[in-house]
Every structure is written in structure tokens, then in C-alpha cells.
Amino acid sequence: MLVSRETIRQILSSYEPRKIKIATICSHTALQIFHGARQEGIKTVGICTEDRRRIYEAFPLGCPDEFLVVDDPSKIPAGELADMNAILVPHGSLVEYAGSRLASLRVPMLGNRESLQWEADRGKMFEWLKAAGIQVPATLEPDKIDRPCVVKLAGAKGGRGYRVVSTPEEFYEHFEGMNVTVQEYLIGVRAYPHYFYSPIHKDGFRVAEGRLELIGIDRRFESNIDEAYRTQMAGLSFTPSFTVVGNELLVMRESLLSDIMDMGKAVVEAAERLFGGIPGPFCLETVVDENLQFYAFEISARIVAGTNIYPQGSPYTIYQWKEPMSMGRRIAREVKLAAKAGKLPKIIY
Ligand code: ATP
After folding, report:
1. Residue 36 burial (CB < 10 Å; 0-12/13-18/19+)?
2. Rounded to an integer, what distance in angstroms lies between the CA atom of residue 302 and that of residue 113?
3. pLDDT, mean of residues 49-60
4. Does residue 247 have a cis peptide bond before it, meaning omega lies within 30 degrees of 0?
5. Beta strands in 119-268 (DSSP E)
6. Nearest C-alpha to atom 2 of ligand 1 is from which residue?
7. Residues near 60 by Cβ (< 8 Å), separated by ≥ 6?
8. pLDDT above 70: residue 156
9. Residue pair 302/281 in contact by the 8 Å Cβ criterion
10. Maximum CA pair distance of the chain?
11. For ligand 1, atom 9, which residue shows the shortest CA distance?
């Protein structure tokens, strides 16, 4: 069950603002979250299974100041974290491990935890995108499949198990009885802009009561579709698959920035109307077609792994910050500023 804002506010009011720590699970974007916090002088806690610890110790500047060793990363020790004065930063692995339990965790969390419930449910996520006026791919009933469609399994699995089908027969051959979504296959260039919405800053690109920043843009490498040309050149045939393996930096033509910023603005404003806002990082997964039209097929209401490409700042943060600014550091900076100004409840739930 969703813990109330009031409960989280009470826990937060017992925190010593100058001793706030940043905590997350050692996975996904943890290196840059810990590194960024270190750059901002904030202590960190890494929730970690014993076997993972050595990986983080291999990167001393991305290693948390202390480890909270757990047997099972899906059971987040909320009480212990609250006792440690820690703010939990949700990332993709944390959302996947904790699932619906995330909503009930009695520990202050960066952002609005309600947004994570909206991203977890594909129906609600599309309602959010549509409320923002963003174009989305058509969703089809299996019997109505009349064009290439991507079939998606439930939950954020990094594209694992997805498959393109073009007819109802093909669908039933592979997905009979399964909990899936059938989505029109978008043709174009994939672009995943990473945003940060700050309700604290009152300058720059004004959105709602604060400012929207574009922190970076990535594109993913997915297996085996993104190496298709090599496979074909080698004379091999294959069934396209979409399992995320890594990310690469994307810089878009400057004239498209207007669409990118306006989409981010619309997503923030729709979030305000639907469930009280989305402070902190978020990402849109889009495809830009040959007419330079954007279509979005997913919102991630938290830091995404594509931000790992630029721990020293991106081709966009360089025009906003004089110091190298990663998404991890941007999060820590916001926590620091909000704590100083007594505004933590604005960015925490
Ligand atoms: P994550 O939560 O990590 O983003 P996921 O399991 O929710 O992953 P999606 O992001 O929805 O998966 O999709 C995985 C990949 O499949 C995308 O990065 C994209 O390459 C491809 N894909 C998804 N939807 C479409 C679509 N409608 N048209 C074309 N390609 C798509």
C-alpha cells in the first residue's frame, strides 16, 4: 500500500539536514549516483549483496561510503535507511527488484513515488503520455494485427523477450495466453532524452513552478537488432530481439531541441495534473520518423541507465553548468540545495 506523504514528511522532519545521506542499490546507475554525491560532499550508502561488493570496491570513486549488506536486494531495509538519515534514489534495478513494495517503503525517496506506479502500469503510462499530448504508437488487439508490431512482455525487462509479429497467427504461435502488449512498430531513429525537473530553480526553461533541464540523450544497443547488418553481411538469418546491452551518446540536430524541451514540459505538467508532479530525473523513449515527428512509447520516471555515458557531463550540461555535471551529481546537487533551503519535501516522497 502507498505510504502517505504525511508519514514520509514526518520521517524527513526527523532528519538532520546537514547529515543527509544518499542511498541506492548497488546496480544500474549506482556508480554515478555515489560518485556525484561524493562530488557534492554527501555521504552514501550502497545496498548490496556480499558478492557484488567487490565490484564497487573496484571503482573507489564510485564506491559508497558504507555498504548495507543484504541477502535479498528486493527487500530494501527501509527502517535502517531511515535511521541512517538516508534518502533512497530509485533506479531501474531498484524499481524492478522492489516492484509494488516500493510504494510502501517507509523511507524518504527522491522524486514522487506515485510516478513510479504510473510508469509501472503500461495503461497508466499511456494515459500520462496522452494527457501530455505526445504522439504514441497504436496499441492493437492480437486479432487486429495488420502491420508489423512489437509484442512486449509485462514489466520493465530491458526489452527481453520482445518480438516483432505481423499477423494474428504469428502472435498466437509465440504469445498464446501470455500477458503482453501489442504495439505498432515505429520506424525511425530512437532517441531517449534524459530530463531533470527542479521545482526549486526559478530560472532557465520554466515549467510548472520550476525549471526543466535537458541533461543528455542516448540511444541503446540492443541485441541482436543493433548488429543486424553484420549478421546479414555474414550471410546469417536471425529473428530480431531487443534485449538492452548498452548505450551510446546521441546529439540531436539543434532544431529538434524545441520539440524535445516541449515534450519534457508537457510530461511534467501532465504529471502535476494527474498525480502531483515529477521532481527529479525522468526519461522519454522516443522514435523520430522521417518527417521529424516524435512518437514516445515509454516514460521512465527516474534515472535511466543511458545517463551512465557521461559521468563527466554531457554535450547539454556543458551549457548549463560550469562544472562537470552528471545526472548522479545533479541529483545530489538538488538534494543539497533543497536541504539547505528547507525544501526537501518538494523533491522527496
Ligand atoms: P526498459 O524499461 O529498460 O526501458 P522495457 O522492457 O520497458 O525496457 P521498452 O523500452 O518498451 O522495453 O522497449 C525495448 C526496446 O524495444 C526499445 O528500446 C526499442 O528499441 C524497442 N521498441 C519498443 N517499442 C517499440 C516500438 N513501438 N517500435 C519500435 N521499437 C520499439
Report:
1. buried
2. 10
3. 97
4. no
5. 149-153, 163-165, 180-184, 189-198, 206-207, 210-224, 242-249
6. 156
7. none
8. no
9. yes
10. 64
11. 159
Cβ–Cβ contacts within 10 Å for residue 342, how many? 9
End-to-end CA distance of the chain: 14
Tell me the C-alpha distance between 307 and 35, whole Å.
13
| pLDDT single digits (tens) 174-217 | 999 999 999 999 999 999 999 999 999 999 999 999 999 999 99
Pull the grid cell for residue 82: 531511515
Q: Span 218-242, mean pLDDT?
A: 94
**Dihedral sign computed on CA atoms, order 157, 347, 62, 98:** negative
Its pTM stands at 0.96
* CA nearest to 198, candidates 87, 316, 318, 278: 278
Comparing CA positions, the residue from 1, 7, 6, 15 lying closest to residue 106 is 7
When pLDDT is averaged across residues 310-322 and rounded to a whole number, the result is 98
Task: Please report the domains of the chain, with CATH numbers, ordered by start residue.
Answer: 5-134+188-347 (3.30.470.20), 142-184 (no CATH)
Nearest to 41 by CA among 59, 67, 60, 65: 65
Nearest alpha carbon, ligand 1 atom 13: 159
Instruction: Identify whether the C-beta of residue 95 lies closer than 8 Å to the C-beta of residue 102.
Output: yes
Q: Which of 129, 285, 302 to mutate to test the pocket of ligand 1 (most atoms within 8 A of CB)?
A: 285
Residue type, 336: K
**Is any ligand 1 atom within 6 A of the Cβ of residue 242?**
yes
Residues 6+ apart with CB under 8 A from 218: 192, 194, 247, 248, 249, 250, 304, 306, 307, 309
Angle between helices 113-120 and 122-131 (to 10 degrees): 110
